[in-house]
Amino acid sequence: MTMIINETIRLYPPVNGMVRKVGREAQLGKLIHPTNIEFTIPNMALHHDPELWGDDVHLFKPERFAEGIAKATKYNAAAFIPFRLGPRSCVGMSFVTTETKIALSMILQCYTITLSPAYVHSPLALLTLKPQHGIQLLFHPLHE
Ligand code: HEM
């Protein structure tokens, strides 16, 4: 389930870009960032970069994470940052992944799920990333 959650938030990170302001002039590689300039960390672009993930970057392949995040990212910590990196990363990360696993486990004990033919795939990045028309699912009870 961890692999499935990781692959889902790789392709569709709910927080799809983060803004940072430079506190004091800093050099990053060849670039000099003046004080107060703002820049966006485009995690969605990093998660969809074929140079980092390979030619199958747009495919849903949970097995990329079979040997953990470090192996999947070839030890590039910035390649997969759905909860961001460093001291200001998401404090809810463990809570939300545990909650997702519990909710999914409870649902999957009672139902199998298929996608409704009414579903239209249209991810919309508007503050957070969301399905523009919702996600219509069909629940099939496992027990009568
Ligand atoms: C799938 C769900 C979630 C995702 C993808 C997510 C992602 C993120 C990201 C990317 C940041 C960094 C934002 C930035 O640096 O600009 C962040 C920060 C934060 N998140 Fe989450 N988050 C999620 C759920 C939660 C939940 C459930 C909580 C609380 C229970 C939470 C609490 C926080 C807090 C307090 C911060 C600010 C941390 C700081 O600035 O020191 N998040 N989250």
Please work out how many helical segments DSSP would assign: 5
Low-confidence stretches: none
Strand order of the largest sheet: 1-4
**Rg to the nearest angstrom?**
18 Å
Percentage of residues in helical conformation? 25-40%
Distance between the termini: 26 Å
Task: Give the biggest sheet.
Answer: 2 strands, antiparallel
The proportion of strand residues reads 15-25%
Please identify the structural class as seen in this structure: alpha+beta
Spell out which ligands are present. Answer: protoporphyrin IX containing FE
Shape: elongated
Element string (H = helix, E = strand): HEEEEHHHHEEEE
Main location: membrane
Subcellular location: Membrane
Protein name: Cytochrome P450 CYP749A22-like
Binding site for heme: 90
Give structural notes:
This protein has helices at 2-11, 43-47, 50-53, 69-72, 93-108; strands spanning 18-21, 26-28, 31-33, 38-41, 111-115, 123-126, 128-131, 137-141. The protein has 144 residues and is an alpha+beta fold. It has a two-stranded antiparallel ribbon with strand order 1-4. It has a two-stranded antiparallel sheet with strand order 2-3. Strands 5-8 form a two-stranded antiparallel sheet. It starts with a helix and ends with a strand. It has two domains: 2-107, no CATH class; 110-144, no CATH class. The structure holds protoporphyrin IX containing FE (HEM). Protoporphyrin IX containing FE binds at residues 14-15, 18, 82-84, 88, 90-92, 95-96. Protoporphyrin IX containing FE (HEM) binds at residues 14-15, 18, 82-84, 88, 90-92, 95-96. It is a single-pass membrane protein.
